[in-house]
Write a structure and sequence with these properties.
It is built from five helices and 27 strands. The chain is of the alpha+beta class. The chain has three domains: 81 residues, Immunoglobulins (Immunoglobulin-like, Sandwich), CATH 2.60.40; 121 residues, Sandwich (Jelly Rolls), CATH 2.60.120; 154 residues, no CATH class.
Length: 420
Amino acid sequence: MKHISRFASVLAMGLLATALLTGCNQGNDLPSNTLPETEAPTEAPTNAATISCTVTVKDYAGNPMADVVVAVLKNGEEVKKNVSKADGTVKFTLEADTYEVSVTSTTGDFYYDTKAAILSPEATELTLTLYHKANEEHAVTIWPVDGEKKAMPVGEGATFVELDGGMTYVVFRPERDGVYVISYIADGNIDLGYYGSPMVVFENKMLDTVDNKVTLTVHHSSINSEGATAMFVFGLEPDAVETDGCVVTITRTGDPEKTPADEPWVEYQPTQVKAYEGTLNGTFKDIDVTNPALTVVYNEADGYYHYGTIDGPVVFLRITTDSPYLAALTTVAENSRVGVYHYDENGKFTGKESFHDMISAYAEIVNGDGVCPLTPELEYMIKTFGEYQKWWDLSFSGNIFSEKIVTPETAWLFICGYYS
């Protein structure tokens, strides 16, 4: 009984507590078993959307270009810049937007398509082809038919040239022999032609232009390491004034076919150079080569040629002074090559012989009149070179004797004389 009474007492106390709680909740909208809501935790704010971009820089042949400075700009203001790697690439992480790309290099001034140099969320990969710009500082003065003008230099590879709407000239100075193809890259059609050298720019093309290309053969003889390398002038005339520039491409396609002009010169080395030690009587007189009775005789005893007889006056040859028919040999050698091309009886080329060393050696021993004794090797030089130049070929309009009558047997003595 005591246990039942104690349970009843506890139950009563529980009922009383329930009644009290129920009274406290009266007039409240929330259900008795609901807790007040709390604000859900928020995520940390994120950065604006970004894009990963790659710019690849190549030359006209598709080769990657390293060490090129690539800059990204927005509204003309630089945002980022970097230097291209060995594979020609530069990578950027940018806020999602549209950007211009600018390229500069320490190796020269380049042209590229600025209209295509754009990065955006829709175009994150960009490849730019760079072309060297023609350098105005190295422009060459030329003389076409309509007056003095300038020609922009171009070389092997690709060069961007600005056009002025009319005829624009460029000049190619090859550094090696070869067969070259000259062409262009442009939006419109351009009349391309080869017009000669800077000194003489012809009105008409000197070579055929086929499919907007000119094939030019440059022989080794045109290449001179001392600065006399031949220069070739090309003209570019657009058919539309809005074509403001083009890329001139010059490609070496092979070796030229060798000609005698490409073969090396062999210098004749003199062995009989000796100053005259005898006595000179009288004044120097030029030999009259129009005299049909003219005779010179070689005296083996003294090693000299003599005028008229074996004991006559010693014959001298002009080296540094002019003769009645020709400038001094030293002057001729300064202005052109004193040498000959040799051919056999079948017309086959056998070699080239030059006499510059001989002229220089004998010029060291001339007397006050600029003459020295005539030797067999000097005779060989005058006869060989004179016949090659047709100096005494009266059927040749360029002979040096004009209307005077001479014979080949003695005409070579025109440069000689004696003291009397």
